[in-house]
Amino acid sequence: MKEYKEMLLTGERAMYNTHDASFADCTFADGESPLKESSDIKLNNCIFKWKYPLWYCKNIEVINTTWLDTARSGIWYIDNITIKNSFIEAPKQFRRSKNITIENTMIPNAEEFLWSCDKISLKNVQAKGHYFGMNSTNIKIDNFTLSGNYAFDGAKNIEIRNARLNSKDSFWNCENVTIYDSTIIGEYLGWNSKNITLINCTIDSNQGMCYIDGIKMINCKLLNTDLSFELCKDVDAIINSGIDSVKNPINGRIEAKNIKEIILDKEMIDPNKTTIITKE
C-alpha cells in the first residue's frame, strides 16, 4: 500500500483513480474530484476543502477526518465506506451509495444527507438538517440525534434505537419502520406509511400517526397529540399516557390512560371495527 503523508493536494482530480493507498494528515484543497474513481483507500486525519472528493469510489476507510462546508456533494455513487470519529460539515453527502457505516461523527449541516442509499449503519451520530435519509433502504441506527424536518421520507426497512428526533413530517411514505426507546418531536408523524412499530417511545406530534396501514405502539407516550390515528388501518396501540384526541381509525385496538376526545364519523368509518379502552 502506497503512503501519502502531510501533503497539500490541489488541482482538479489531484489523486484521480488511486488504488491501494493511505493518506495521513493530508489536505485536499482547491480542485474538484480529488479521489474520483479510487478504491481501497485509507484516510486518517485528513481535510477535504473542495467539492466532490469521493465519487465512484469503493472500499474506503476514514477516521478523524473533516469535510468543510465547501466539500459539498462529497460522497456519491460509492460502494463500501466506513467513517469514524469525524466531522462532516458539508451538505448533500451520499447519493445512490451502498454499504455505509458512520460512527462517532458530527454532521452539523446534514441537508439532503443519505439520499437513495442502501445498507446503512449509523452509531453515535449527531446531525442537523432537513430531508435526512430520503428514499434510502435497509437502515440500522443506534444512539442518534437529529434536528431537521422531513426525515426518512420514502425510506424502507428502518430500525432505530435510542434516538432523539426533532423532525416535522418525519417517516412519511415509509415502509417497515421499527423504533425503540426513542423520543420523536414533530407534527404529522408517519403519514402515508406502512408497517410502523414504536416501542417504549415518547411522541409529541400534532396530528401524528395518520393514514398508516399497520401501526403498532407498545408502552408509548403520546404528548400533545391530537386527531391521532385518522384513517389508520390495523391499529394496535398501548399508550401509557393520555391522548388529546383520536379521529376515525379504520380498525384495530387503542388502549390509553385517557382520551380527551374521540371522533368517530359513521359516514367515513365503521366505529364497531375499532376497540377503544381507557383506564380512567
Describe this structure in a few short sentences.
This protein is mainly beta and 280 residues long. 0% of the residues lie in helices and 51% in strands.
Q: Please, could you describe this protein's structure?
A:
The chain is an all-beta fold and 280 residues long. The chain is built from no helices and 26 strands. It has a domain of 92 residues: E3 ubiquitin-protein ligase SopA (Pectate Lyase C-like), CATH 2.160.20.80. Helices cover 0% and strands 51% of the residues. The strands form four sheets. A six-stranded parallel β-barrel has the order 16-17-19-21-20-18. The protein has a five-stranded parallel sheet with strand order 2-4-6-9-12, with no helix packed on it. The model has no long low-confidence stretch (mean pLDDT 97).
Listing every helix as H and every strand as E from the N terminus to the C terminus, the arrangement reads EEEEEEEEEEEEEEEEEEEEEEEEEE
Distance between the termini: 69 Å
Quickly give the CATH architecture of the domain at 1-92.
3 Solenoid
| Overall form | elongated
Annotated CATH topology of the domain at 1-92: Pectate Lyase C-like
Output the number of helix runs. Answer: 0
Strand content: over 45%
Offer a few descriptive terms:
280 residues; mainly beta; Pectate Lyase C-like; six-stranded parallel β-barrel; five-stranded parallel sheet; 26 strands
Topology:
Blueprint: E1 2-5, E2 8-9, E3 19-24, E4 27-28, E5 39-44, E6 47-48, E7 54-55, E8 58-63, E9 66-67, E10 75-76, E11 79-84, E12 87-88, E13 98-107, E14 118-128, E15 137-147, E16 156-166, E17 175-180, E18 183-185, E19 194-199, E20 202-204, E21 213-223, E22 233-239, E23 242-247, E24 252-256, E25 258-263, E26 274-278
Parallel strand pairs: 1-3, 2-4, 3-5, 4-6, 5-8, 6-9, 7-10, 8-11, 9-12, 11-13, 13-14, 14-15, 15-16, 16-17, 16-18, 17-19, 18-20, 19-21, 20-21, 21-22, 22-24, 23-25, 24-26
